[in-house]
Design brief:
Layout lengths: L1 H19 L6 H7 L3 H7 L6 H22 L5 H12 L1 H11 L1 H4 L4 H9 L4 H22 L1 H15 L4 H4 L3 H11 L6 E10 L2 E10 L2 E8 L2 H16 L1
Antiparallel strand pairs: 1-2, 2-3
Helix pairs in contact: 2-9, 4-5, 4-9, 4-10, 6-9, 9-10, 12-13
Length: about 240
């Protein structure tokens, strides 16, 4: 029986590497990433995937951040942060883990294995699989460095996650900048033309220009809100 399990395990690891298109130089790292602490405890192993999970969490966040930074140059920090949180959340990771077949590969203690046999998509198994995916990314980084981790994560996001335009360009300034550059009109510029009101309650008036043309004006209790309103008016002129 043990011999059969080892044959299956080795074949499964080979298939997994084919699926990810990455072949480990140190297969021990992959085995470690797919070993839960409950299995390690029951089997007397000196390793489990917790340390690799810790590392993989940071690897994932950095790779996703680079992908978003390069792919959405007109999206501001707040939008990029929100998009990143959607890509690295538990539910997104558990879906990716499911695609890769990690729930079946994950080595679990007997109690957790029974839960998996009864319901392989139960909340607890999905959560453990998401953790193991992060451990796999940590193992990938340790084996092949950033040049191995980034392309795999980038390919997954590009193939599996369609970010709606409304999510990327949530604010009118970003939308206006994208539109003017797409049309070859250049960069919008914002000019403060007036500040009224009392010192503790100022009111700002902003013009937005593209080239030599004023395409919008906006007023608001902060410079940012006035710029957003000017950009919204500019969008109406151009759309």
């Amino acid at each position: 029986m043990q011999q059969k399990k080892m044959v299956w395990w080795n074949k499964a690891l080979s298939q997994f590497q084919n699926k990810t298109a990455y072949f480990f130089k140190d297969l021990y790292l992959l085995e470690q990433a797919l070993t839960h602490s409950s299995y390690a405890h029951e089997s007397g192993l000196s390793y489990c995937n917790e340390r690799l999970e810790f590392l993989g969490d940071s690897v994932l966040e950095l790779c996703v951040s680079q992908f978003l930074y390069e792919s959405y140059p007109f999206s501001d920090e707040g939008n990029l942060t929100r998009l990143r949180s959607n890509l690295v959340c538990k539910s997104a990771l558990s879906e990716w883990a499911l695609e890769l077949g990690i729930p079946e590969l994950l080595r679990l203690g007997k109690g957790l294995a029974r839960i998996r046999n009864k319901d392989p998509e139960s909340r607890v198994i999905r959560s453990l699989s998401a953790d193991s995916l992060e451990a796999f990314l940590g193992a990938l980084f340790m084996d092949g460095g950033y040049p191995a981790a980034f392309p795999l994560i980038k390919t997954h996001i590009s193939d599996s996650y369609k970010i709606p335009e409304s999510e990327v360009f949530i604010d009118p300034k970003s939308r206006l900048q994208f539109l003017t550059q797409e049309r070859g009109l250049g960069q919008p510029s914002y000019r403060l033309v007036n500040v009224s009101g009392q010192d503790h309650m100022p009111y700002f008036e902003i013009l937005v220009e593209v080239g030599d043309n004023i395409i919008g004006t906006g007023k608001g209790p902060s410079r940012k809100s006035a710029e957003f309103r000017a950009a919204s008016e500019g969008l109406k002129q151009l759309l």
